[in-house]
Amino acid sequence: MLTKKDLEHLAALARIDLKSGEEEKLLSDLQSILGHFEELQEVDTEKVEPMTGGTQLRSVVREDVAGLTDDTGKGKDAFPDSNNGYLKVPPVF
Question: How many helical (H) and strand (E) elements, i.e. helices and strands, does the chain have?
Fold first, then answer.
């Protein structure tokens, strides 16, 4: 069961300013919601297999495989200016 102190703590965490009239109604509503969870705890789920999403879909993303590539110098011809394999850019400052 939630107390008024618990409700004030939750409201502070959620940064909600509660008025005096709202506290009692909100406390009653939260206790009612938690009551539904108590009902669910009584359900026997021992022989129920867990679900992982309910679909048979598989990931379409390719496997991440490590490999060596040598892209050194590719695109250098399209760059306006280079020197000893380095691309020259105009100064920024």
Answer: 2, 2
* Statement: residue 92 has pLDDT above 80: yes
In DSSP terms, 83 is beta-bridged to 86
Number of residues written out for the chain? 93
19 and 38 in contact (C-beta within 8 Å)? no
Other CB atoms within 10 A of residue 18 CB:
17
Q: Write the single-letter amino acid at 26.
A: L
* Residue 88: partners with Cβ closer than 8 Å, 6 or more residues away: 81, 82
Looking at residue 60, its pLDDT comes to 79
CA atoms of 66 and 40, how far apart (whole Å): 47
Predicted TM-score of the model (pTM): 0.46
Residue 3 — φ and ψ, nearest 5°?
-105, 170
